[in-house]
Structure formats: C-alpha cells, structure tokens
C-alpha cells in the first residue's frame, strides 16, 4: 500500500506534553512555497511552538483536527535510494520546494490507491517524530468556525494549513477525507463527540491571500464557491497583521464548500 491517512485529533493538540516542533517545520515548509514564489509574506506561518494556536487563529476553546496523507515507509525508502531526501527542518526560504516529490518519482504514489488507505486516529500520547515528518505528502486542518451561523442543522468548520508536497494529491486527499471521515458517522463522532445524524449538511469555510492565486484552485479543484463575504484589504503592510509581515498590501478572499450529509 502506498499511503496511510493519519488523523491528529484535538485531544493531542490540547495535551500539554505534545511537541509541536516537527509539525511547525512541516506547516512552515508548505507555506514557504508561496512566500518564495510571490514575495509578499515575510514571516513564517508558525512563528514558534508557543504561538502555534495564535498563528492559526485557534482560540482556547476551539477544536482543531489535522488530517495527513503519509507515504509508506517503503515508498519513502525507495525515494531515498534514488537520492531524494526531504529536509523539512531546513528553514532557508531558498529551499522552500525541496520537500516536493520530484515529478519523475510521482508514479511511486498512485492516487488511485488513496481510497483504500488505512485510516488511523492517533491518541494524545502520539509522538510526531522524524519518521512521520519525512512521510508527509499532503495535509490540512479543520478548526472551529467562529462566526454566527443561522442553521443549527449545519456543521461549520474552517479549513487551515492546506499544504501539499505531491503533485495533484491535495484535492484528491480533500475529497477522500470528506467521504471517508467527515461523512463517516463513526469517525466523525470520534473526532467531534456528537452524532453526525444531528446534521443535514457540512460547510467548510476557507480564506486565502488573493494575490497567491488560490481562489481559482479552490473553485476548480476543490469545489468551493466564492463567499458573499467581502474581501478584506490588508493595508499598511509594513506593520504586523495577525503576526504576519508583508512587503505590500494584499487582500484576503473567502470561500465555502457545502456538503450534503
């Protein structure tokens, strides 16, 4: 099997003994790619372990669940035998793309096998070690949606940390998590501690920097729609916005994906 799906639940994030270091390296490597490509954002996505929740806009009473697509140990070893070593801990922005799987080795990971992947929800004592780190191909998180909603029969979640290191895998992985996890009563209830049957639909909200050209990606690849919520213009870019520093003004755009349950 080429893949494993790993779910890190909110209980792990809230365990004071959990070490966010490798997760910080991972998320920052994913976000360094648009930093290098567009030259707008100057700061790391996760500034430090201590600022992890603040940087992801996760409030003290919020929930955060993280979904990771891992390559098998055998596939990663085959990459390394061919001289492909992925150093997530190298924080030099010039090396932003070094953890992407080279296209000539993409055939090692057949996305047709993704739907058959083993799904594992870790416990709060899970160790995010170097072996897990080097196996990550794609990830995203879902956090509490902190805006007023009108329909109580809807689940509302906010997409965060959407990163990919394997060409074409992100949107496919996103669909697998929706179908195999979020629409699966057993897995949903294990993660969110309430019956899925209480709800008729799930809405996943997303926001992104418009200048990073992600709006079309979300719409065409991930089936999102543009929100009626007005874009936010971030001006005076020389000062910090949510601890983000930028070289010029930019805009935040909003999208959503409705999924019938």
* Biggest sheet layout: 9 strands, mixed
Number of helices: 8
Query: What's the gyration radius in Å?
Result: 18 Å
Task: Find the count of extended strands (DSSP E, 2+ residues).
Answer: 9
SS class:
alpha+beta
Percent helix? 25-40%
Note the overall shape. globular
Ranges where pLDDT stays below 50 over 5 or more residues in a row are none
Compute the average pLDDT: 94
Task: Write up what this structure looks like.
- This protein starts with a strand and ends with a strand.
- The longest helix is centred in the N-terminal third of the chain and has 18 residues, at 21-38.
- The chain is built from eight helices and nine strands.
- Helices cover 27% and strands 24% of the residues.
- It has helices at 10-13, 21-38, 52-55, 73-81, 130-135, 169-182, 185-192, 215-222, and strands spanning 3-8, 64-71, 118-121, 136-144, 154-164, 201-209, 225-226, 232-234, 250-260.
- With 261 residues, it is of the alpha+beta class.
- It has one domain.
- Strands 1, 2, 3, 4, 5, 6, 7, 8 and 9 form a nine-stranded mixed beta sheet that branches.
- The model has no long low-confidence stretch (mean pLDDT 94).
């Amino acid at each position: 099997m080429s893949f494993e799906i790993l779910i890190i639940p909110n209980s792990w994030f809230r365990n004071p003994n959990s070490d966010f270091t490798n997760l910080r390296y991972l998320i920052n490597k994913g976000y360094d790619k648009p930093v290098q490509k567009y030259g707008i954002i100057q700061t790391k996505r996760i500034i430090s372990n201590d600022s992890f929740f603040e940087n992801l806009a996760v409030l003290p009473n919020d929930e955060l669940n993280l979904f990771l697509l891992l390559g098998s140990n055998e596939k990663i070893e085959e990459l390394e035998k061919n001289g492909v070593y992925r150093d997530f801990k190298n924080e030099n922005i010039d090396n932003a793309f070094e953890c992407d799987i080279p296209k000539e080795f993409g055939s090692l990971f057949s996305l047709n096998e993704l739907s058959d992947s083993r799904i594992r929800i870790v416990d709060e004592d899970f160790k995010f070690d170097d072996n897990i780190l080097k196996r990550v191909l794609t990830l995203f998180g879902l956090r509490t949606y902190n805006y007023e909603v009108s329909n109580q029969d809807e689940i509302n979640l906010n997409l965060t940390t959407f990163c990919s290191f394997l060409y074409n895998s992100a949107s496919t992985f996103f669909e697998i998590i929706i179908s195999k996890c979020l629409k699966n009563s057993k897995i949903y209830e294990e993660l969110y501690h309430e019956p899925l049957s209480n709800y008729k639909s799930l809405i996943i909200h997303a926001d992104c920097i418009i200048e990073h050209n992600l709006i079309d990606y979300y719409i065409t690849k991930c089936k999102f729609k543009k929100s009626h919520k007005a874009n936010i213009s971030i001006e005076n870019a020389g000062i910090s916005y949510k601890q983000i520093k930028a070289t010029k003004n930019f805009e935040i755009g909003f999208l959503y994906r409705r999924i019938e349950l």
